[in-house]
Amino acid sequence: MRNRWLIAAAAVAIHLSIGSVYAYSVLKNPLEAQLGWSDLTVTGSFSLAIALLGISAATFGPFVERRGPRVAASVAGVCYGCGMLLAGLACQLESIVLFYIGYGVLGGIGLGIGYIAPVSTLVRYFPDRRGLATGLAIMGFGLGALLYGPIMAWLLQGHAAIMFYVLGGWYMLVMVGVAQYLKKPADPADDPARATTARVADLEQLGVAQAVRTPRFYLLWLMLFINVACGIAIISSASPLLEDGFGMDNVAAAGIVGLMGLFNGVGRLLWASASDYLGRANTYLAFFIIQIIAFAALPSIGSLLIFQVVLFTIMTCYGGGFATVPAFIGDLFGTKQLGAIHGCILTAWSAAGISGPLLYSWLYSTTGSAELVLRIFAGAFVVAVIATMLLRYDMQRIRRRQAQEAPA
After folding, report:
1. C-beta neighbour count of 407 within 10 angstroms
2. Structural contact between residues 185 and 338, judged by C-beta atoms closer than 8 angstroms
3. String of DSSP letters for 95-141
4. 243 in Cβ contact with 256 (< 8 Å)
5. DSSP character for 157?
6. How far is 300 from 306, CA to CA, in rounded Å?
7. CB 20 within 8 A of CB 145
8. Cα separation of 324 and 135, whole Å?
9. Domain-ending residue, one of 132, 163, 193
10. Any alpha helices (H) in 156-214, and if so which ranges?
11. What CATH code is carried by the domain that includes residue 384?
């Protein structure tokens, strides 16, 4: 029998590797300087990778459930590692098309499969502490930039191709290696203790085709979309807000933006763990209400210290939304096809990752006021609160019906 904490460690190792995508900004200036590529060209490959993360997670979710976490995570490691190696070759040949194919397409597919493969397994091994388990793994994704960002910067002192070759090989070695320890646990029916816990937590065991026909699927999708869109918008605008509002230079503002990544990662573990005790819906309500207040107050804060505290608090809620979703899916739909359902839900990430920063920029250019834009985003969280309340009511209604139908 597998040790579930070693399963968790393997999941963290995979997510740390693919989480290095968040350190992409470290690559921008060296790629532009060494290869003469434009800012738009370099940024476009990152956007493509993030878009394909959500698309591939939804597309390959059934594959993850059918072939199991070992095969799926190995495929993710090969795709992500080869994507980096191909990006290195693209840098040598100075081929933008090859770079997009390697980093954007192949790397993005590896991101999507690698994100969901270990998480769906962890939920099954920790039916009693789903939030803690998924929080640990997804915290790794949030902290990947902190680990690999400095390594990237050091390797980029040489040619960019060297960095991609070294890390591409390393990612493949780590991800494929630890994937060999991943394995689905025994059927809950064979484990009375786990089966009892799962029956208490799950509303019902649904497949992906059944799940996407329920209102609660779309309510959860909307909740994640709003949380991610507003969070990414604040990430993309944090440096200008600090520079314009407090007169900070670019270097000092970049330091605070780097710390935001730390709170993003820590929030994933803290909020997801708290959801084991508060309940998933109550946890989402908590950080949506916090963000209504935070976004509304942010533009009028005159103290740099308080501004940073509020900014970092928003980041914990942003990360917490990602980490709590897999456990919430397990509660709502069971663990029968959790990986496939999680992949479909993650399309909200792709949509929000593209629309969030664009919406912020459009609103800012239209209104000319960051204060008004942030308060509009605060209003979006009101919609998220309503969606959460509807979802909680739906869960309570189904549980009451199940209690009435249960044999005496």
Report:
1. 3
2. no
3. -HHHHIIIIIIIHHHHHHHHHHHHHHHHHHH-TTSHHHHHHHHHHHH
4. no
5. T
6. 11
7. yes
8. 7
9. 193
10. 160-179, 192-201, 208-211
11. 1.20.1250.20
Query: Is the same domain home to 232 and 249?
Result: yes
Residues in the chain: 408
Phi, psi of 212 (to 5 degrees): -70, -5
Q: How far is CA 307 from CA 184, 206, 208, in A?
A: 44, 44, 42
Q: Return d(Cα 186, Cα 407) in angstroms, integer.
A: 27
pLDDT digits (tens, 9 = 90+) for 329-371: 988 888 878 888 988 998 998 888 778 877 877 887 788 777 8
C-alpha–C-alpha distance, residues 188 and 172, integer Å = 32
Q: For tokens 């191909």, what's the residue?
A: 86
**Which residues span the domain enclosing 151?**
4-193
Contact status, residue 316 vs residue 310, Cβ threshold 8 Å:
no
181-237: per-residue pLDDT in tens?
988 776 554 343 444 444 445 677 887 888 888 999 999 999 999 999 888 878 767
Instruction: For residue 318, give the amino acid letter.
Output: Y
Smallest CA-to-CA distance from 316 within 349, 286, 350 is with 286
Q: Is 289 found in the same domain as 182?
A: no
Token pair belonging to 226? 């709003």
